[in-house]
Design a protein that fits this description.
With 60 residues, this protein is mainly α. The chain has a domain at 20-60. Helix content is 70%, strand content 0%. It contains three helices and no strands. It has helices at residues 2-15, 21-44, 49-52.
Length: 60
Amino acid sequence: MGILAAILQIISRILGLLPNRSEIEESANRAQWKRNNEAIDADLNCDAWWVRNDSANRKN
């Protein structure tokens, strides 16, 4: 049964039905980056980065 599962997995990867390991890692890295940025924004309790860095919105 394990051999059949391995063969099906190889066929699905060839057909592009399953993501390869690098695609999975890239997706995980992207999700981690997004979570980190959301945590930083929550800690700073402020607007989005383009609003924070906009000199026109700064008040003296």
